[in-house]
């Protein structure tokens, strides 16, 4: 049966590109791609069994963790990360009009943040307006000469608009990690283990004890990030990525979790998977 893969739509987003690449890496046979409106909707589509897999951004090299994705993964603990790719992101300024007449710039909040310096230097008086996706932003500017959108150059061909400037992202090495999610564990070779936890008590040294276990077992953290639990001020959820470099790491990951879990009120294992770096040039 053909797998249905949800992603942040509409067509033309970086997420759609990531969905095609990750589905190929997962050896999905002729998958059906389902665009969704908003990151939470993408993950809910999987959580509520309306699709077989989902592709979402989880981390950007400039703006850090994608909070909607992190919060949703904590909310739906039966979802696993199966694969990941690091996709280079190069933004274009897209419009019907000329750059001298642009007074509003629309895009996804992450894209706006990734181009904030360029916008302040080149369009200092323009109002920035957030949208659910870069593709939605491009749809909203069609027919307007005073509005521009930030998004992939591929959107220009799809929507029949023109490029006003490229690339406009503030950091040349801007990239985003996208993950393939499902309720199954389909990974074979792995190089990352991901999990999240909240501690039993907010006491001095509680987090340090958990992190010491990670060091004692010989793991290198490639990411550590905190998010508020949303229950009370000062209570946080800790998200951790560990590098799996060798067989010793692979054998030690389960033992490490056994040591950390007694320290935790909640512990969610997102699984072990392989993260690929993609070169689109």
Estimated structural class: alpha/beta
Number of helices: 9
Ends apart, CA distance between termini:
34 Å
Number of strands: 15
Task: Tell me what the CATH architecture of the largest domain is.
Answer: 3-Layer(aba) Sandwich
User: Judging from the principal axes of the Cα atoms, what is the shape?
Assistant: globular
Can you walk me through this structure?
This protein has helices spanning 14-25, 39-47, 67-75, 109-114, 116-122, 134-141, 154-159, 206-216, 247-260; strands at residues 4-8, 32-36, 53-60, 64-65, 80-88, 92-95, 104-107, 127-130, 147-151, 162-165, 175-182, 192-199, 221-228, 236-243, 264-277. The chain has 281 residues and is α/β, with parallel strands linked by helices. The chain folds into three domains: 4-88 and 175-182, 3-Layer(aba) Sandwich (D-Maltodextrin-Binding Protein, domain 2), CATH 3.40.190.10; 92-165, D-Maltodextrin-Binding Protein, domain 2 (3-Layer(aba) Sandwich); 192-277, Alpha-Beta Plaits (2-Layer Sandwich). The strands form two sheets. Strands 1, 2, 3, 4, 5, 11, 12, 13, 14 and 15 form a ten-stranded mixed β-sheet that branches. Strands 8-7-9-6-10 form a five-stranded mixed β-sheet. α2 (39-47) runs parallel beside α3 (67-75). It starts with a strand and ends with a strand.
């Amino acid at each position: 049966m053909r797998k249905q893969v949800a992603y942040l739509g509409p067509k033309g987003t970086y997420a759609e590109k990531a969905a095609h690449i990750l589905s190929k890496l997962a050896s999905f046979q002729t998958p059906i791609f389902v665009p969704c409106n908003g990151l939470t909707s993408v993950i809910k589509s999987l959580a509520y069994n309306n699709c077989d897999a989902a592709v979402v951004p989880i981390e950007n090299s400039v703006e850090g963790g994608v909070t909607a994705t992190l919060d949703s993964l904590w909310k739906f603990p039966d979802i696993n990360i199966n694969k990941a790719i690091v996709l280079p992101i190069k933004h274009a300024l897209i419009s019907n009009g000329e750059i001298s007449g642009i007074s509003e710039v629309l895009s996804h909040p992450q894209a706006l943040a990734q181009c904030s310096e360029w916008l302040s230097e080149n369009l200092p008086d323009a109002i920035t307006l957030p949208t659910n996706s870069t593709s939605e932003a491009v749809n909203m500017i069609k027919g307007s000469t005073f509005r521009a959108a930030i998004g992939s150059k591929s959107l220009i061909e799809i929507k029949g608009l023109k490029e006003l400037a490229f690339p406009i992202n503030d950091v040349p090495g801007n990239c985003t990690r996208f993950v393939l999610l499902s309720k199954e564990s389909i990974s074979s070779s792995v190089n990352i283990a991901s999990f999240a936890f909240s501690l039993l008590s907010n006491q001095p040294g509680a987090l340090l004890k958990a992190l010491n276990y990670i060091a004692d077992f010989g793991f290198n953290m490639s990411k550590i990030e905190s998010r508020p639990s949303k229950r009370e001020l000062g209570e946080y959820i800790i998200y951790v990525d560990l590098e799996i470099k060798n067989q010793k790491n692979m054998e030690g990951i389960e033992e490490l979790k056994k040591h950390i879990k007694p320290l935790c009120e909640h512990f969610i294992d997102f699984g072990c998977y392989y993260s690929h770096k993609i070169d689109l040039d």
